[in-house]
Specification:
Layout (H helix, E strand, L loop, with lengths): L1 H15 L15 H34 L16 H30 L7 E8 L2 E6 L4 E4 L1 E5 L3 E8 L4 E5 L3 E6 L5 E6 L4 E6 L12 E7 L1 H12 L10 H10 L8 E2 L3 E2 L14 E2 L4 E2 L2 H9 L1 H4 L14 H13 L2
Parallel strand pairs: 1-5, 4-10
Antiparallel strand pairs: 1-2, 2-3, 5-8, 6-7, 9-10, 11-12, 13-14
Helix pairs in contact: 2-3, 5-8, 6-8
Bound molecules: dinuclear copper ion.
Length: 332
């Protein structure tokens, strides 16, 4: 009885896995690139089904027809049946060709460049976060890439340290981010949404915490995002907690690693100029809310093993951290 119940529980859990949501599924493509891969997968899947059904049917026929019966002589072995041998050599060869042709075609189709008017985004992998640069728009941001829906996007990928791999499953990929080398993907997203992805190449202690988002915006929303990003950081209101936080920031060690346009020029960590407009922190690991941000500022390595952002030394007071949180979140 307990065994039966265990089986039922296992089956229920397995089925629950099919229920969704599917934040990182290649089977729910949302771009031309993603669809090309999905079509190829479906094609090959059905070829495998055909092979499985034929082979299993023949196996069952043989098992039933030639099974041992009382008084029946042993079946006669067959040697050198030319037609059969040609058949079982040709059939797999034909199936392999039918799999290889669409595979090679998809490889070439998805390795091509976007049209010249495509939006260009440079992706730079860092231990353990993603930097995004939009050279034609003068934008630098981190971890959350924005692209317009229905427009071609050309992504160039490289790394600042070790090999990473950029992968947003619904949109296509994945592509290695290799230091000193540029790889590319091109896609056209076909529905507005917030798509999760992550680094897909083991890159050290916080590989699993190197997540990312691609936000596919409607055209107007994308234009608004571009205008906001191109502007300088929002100025805190006079005598507000955010203004106190700006003062803390200006005398902190944060300056050495982070850029806030017009305030600090650091390039080691993510650009914080419009930090408040991002939905997550620590490369998509935590929501961008006050409690998580305060914990992150106080002791980043405790939240993300190996984080290059050190524990604050000397530690900031709770009041200083609260002020910094208010300032960073005001940077919309
Ligand atoms: Cu970067 Cu794994």
């Amino acid at each position: 009885m307990t065994r039966c119940r265990r089986w039922l529980t296992t089956a229920a859990l397995a089925l629950a896995g099919c229920a969704g949501p599917f934040p990182q599924s290649t089977l729910h493509p949302r771009s031309d690139y993603g669809r090309a891969i999905d079509h190829l997968f479906t094609d090959i899947f059905w070829w495998a089904v055909v092979v499985f059904v034929i082979v299993e049917t023949l196996l069952l026929i043989a098992l039933i027809r030639f099974r041992h019966r009382e008084g029946r002589p042993a079946p006669k072995p067959l040697h050198g049946h030319t037609a059969l041998e040609i058949g079982w050599t040709l059939a797999p060869a034909v199936i392999l060709v039918l799999v290889a042709v669409p595979t090679v075609r998809t490889i070439f189709a998805t390795a091509g460049d976007a049209p010249p008017d495509a939006l260009k985004v440079e992706v730079i992998g860092h231990q353990w976060w993603w930097e995004y640069k939009y050279p034609s728009l003068g934008i630098v941001t981190a971890n959350e890439m924005h692209v317009p829906v229905g427009k071609p996007v050309q992504v160039s990928i490289t790394s600042a340290d070790v090999i990473h791999s950029f992968w947003a499953p619904a949109l296509g990929g994945k592509r290695d981010a290799t230091p000193g080398h540029i790889t590319r993907i091109a896609f056209r997203a076909d529905s507005v949404g917030n798509y999760s992805g992550q680094c897909a190449e083991f890159c050290g202690q916080s590989h699993a915490n190197m997540r990312l988002r691609v936000l596919v915006d409607a055209e107007a929303a994308f234009e608004t995002w571009v205008k906001t990003e191109q502007a300088g950081p929002a100025a805190p209101a006079p005598a507000s907690p955010a203004e106190a936080g700006k003062a803390v920031y200006s005398r902190s060690a944060c300056l050495a690693c982070h850029t806030i346009k017009g305030i600090s020029p650091g390039v080691i960590g993510p650009d914080l100029t419009h930090f408040g407009s991002r939905t997550t922190i620590a490369a998509g690991v935590f929501p961008n809310d006050s409690a998580d941000l305060a914990r992150w500022i106080a002791d980043a390595p405790a939240l993300k093993p190996g984080s290059l952002m050190p524990r604050m030394q000397p530690p900031l007071s709770d009041a200083e951290i609260a002020a910094l949180v208010a300032y960073l979140q005001s940077l919309k």
